[in-house]
Amino acid sequence: MKERKYIKIKGANEHNLKNVSLDIPRDEFVVLTGLSGSGKSSLAFDTIFAEGQRRYMESLSSYARQFLGQMEKPNVEHMEGMPPAISIDQKSTNHNPRSTVGTVTEIYDYMRLLYARCGVPHCPNCGKPISKQTVDQMVDAIMALPERTKIQLLAPVVRGRKGTHEKLFEKAKKSGYVRVNVDGNVYDLSEEIKLDKNIKHNIEIVVDRLVVKEGIEKRLTDSIEAVLKLADGLMIVDVIDGEPIRFSEGFSCPDCGISIDEVEPRSFSFNNPFGACPECFGLGYKMEFDEDLMIPDKSLSFNQGAVQVMGWQSSNKSTSFAHALLEALAKEYDFSLDTPFGRCALPGPKGPWRLPYSFRGIN
Question: Domains (ranges, CATH) in the chain?
């Protein structure tokens, strides 16, 4: 039978505690109950937690302790069996969908840090552990692309950071680079690039533009090394008329050829674009339009008010912006706004009619 361990407290006199001695079982869920003012918080926070934190601080190096300050010993005669401790303060509830028990109690911060520093990344395709990637492996992967494929080697120097980044553009220009890709748009470094300092930006420096063919290995190797030096071991290969390929000196799967960015705490945050689910954007649910609620009577035409959504009724056709959009939609898909909705034959994923996504996404 496993021996039970205890946190032994003798002579606790913190605040309203009067020489309290007790043994608390370790590795178990323990609840302290009592009347208001009976000393629950004094025992849990001001005695047990305070001593656990103090002992943890003393386990750190003298260099680290000089930045953290000295913690006072709680008013207790003796304590033993006390491990390092964390406390979760009582807070009011929050109905924000981006707030959970983990974020409110701040345990989530510790978990993200733990996963990022101690976790072993695995390939999302085959499940094997992902290891670092060499320059030669990157060259081989790029040379495996179809011949005559046009590519750009991009150095992701800024990823999801606010600011105007004027000094970065100036430094890249002085280094001899000509173009940058800012939030998906290509700019010439000779022109003035103004960015909103309050918006997060992604900036990639265009290091080289190549056509895949025999004999470019030496130039490709030199360009890759320049990219990795600029972007701290990261590289994006922008395949013209194709999907971009990400490479990292940090992590890649040798069998599947899949590369992932270096694992960071924000990789595990649903509140950050780098860790959020691409389907729900970290909210945990998706908002979609219900066609039957938008158009309850499919025997009506658009001109008869088939769309029963605020702002989309076409009563005032001469000045209605919504009706102008409907006319453009009818022209694009070659149907009449006087035809009953149920008889419109537009292509779509759910049968003969489906509102195009560009139309359905307008509020």
Answer: 6-80 (no CATH), 135-254 (3.30.190.20), 288-363 (no CATH)
- Residue 360 banded pLDDT, cuts 50, 70, 90: very low
- 205 forms beta bridges with 155, 180
Q: How far apart are CA 307 and CA 293, in angstroms?
A: 9
Tens of pLDDT, residues 199-209: 888 899 999 99
- Rounded Cα–Cα distance for residues 190 and 215 (Å): 31
* Cα separation, 78 vs 337, whole angstroms: 84
Question: Helices 135-143 and 217-230, interaxial angle, to 10°?
Answer: 130
Return all residues near 249 (Cβ < 8 A) that are at least 6 apart.
132, 133, 134, 135, 228, 233, 234
Q: With 50 as the cut, is the pLDDT of residue 348 above it? A: no
Q: Which residues contact 177 (CB under 8 A, 6 or more apart)?
A: 189, 205, 206, 207
- Predicted confidence at residue 311, as pLDDT, reads 63
d(CA 241, CA 308): 40
- Under the banding of pLDDT at 50, 70 and 90, the label for residue 354 is very low
What contacts 284, CB < 8 A, 6 or more positions away?
97, 270
CA–CA dist 249, 256 (Å, integer): 16
Mean pLDDT value across residues 301-312: 76
Are the C-beta atoms of residues 359 and 329 closer than 8 Å to each other? yes
Q: How far is CA 315 from CA 176, 184, 304, 309, in A?
A: 59, 40, 8, 12
> Could you tell me if 140 and 133 are in contact, meaning their C-beta atoms sit under 8 angstroms apart?
no
Residues 6+ apart with CB under 8 A from 269: 108, 112, 275, 276, 282
